[in-house]
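Input chain follows. Return structure tokens only.
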Amino acid sequence: MPESAIEQPRLGRRERKKAATHKALADAALRLFLERGYDAVGIREIAEAADLSVTTLFKHFPSKEALVFDQEGDVKDALLSAVRDRDAGRSIPAALRDYVIRHRLPHHGDDPRFAQFKRLIEQTPALREYSRKMWMRYELALAAEIADDVGVPHDDPACRALAHFSIEVIDLVFGGSDPELMVERAFDLLEHGWHAVGGPAADTTA
């Protein structure tokens, strides 16, 4: 996946070598997938393109699909941290809005590969299914984090809804003329409700 704007901590020599190997494999896989299509590329070809063994590849990635979503753990950690480590007095919707704007939007416009990356997923059934399951795991984890923060059960429908729509915003704004404004508007709705963003008042007459 194209690099995100999430800042990484400084690593020791062993960790840097491991991270470099991980990135080399993911970069080789994405390059080949974009050039030839996901289904036309084999695991051995990816390993050879990165000048590594198939055994090394599987030490870093459990499946071919995982090569495309190489930052899955980092994305999940940053998403939950947006709620857990937000400033005192900052609402959860506001914190999630800031996360989306800061970490899910900037690199999309700067990296021309991102549109290709999105198309690759959309056009490949195996990747669409993997992505759907990945984001469902994020959604459940985020809902649990929100529920813990406000002191309600993990299956609280309001927490599930906030988690679901906060994640859906990322896809909703992709390709829009002003993604940041679209994110702001979407989170205004999540934070304040329909009336606050200009929706018509409900008919309260009998």
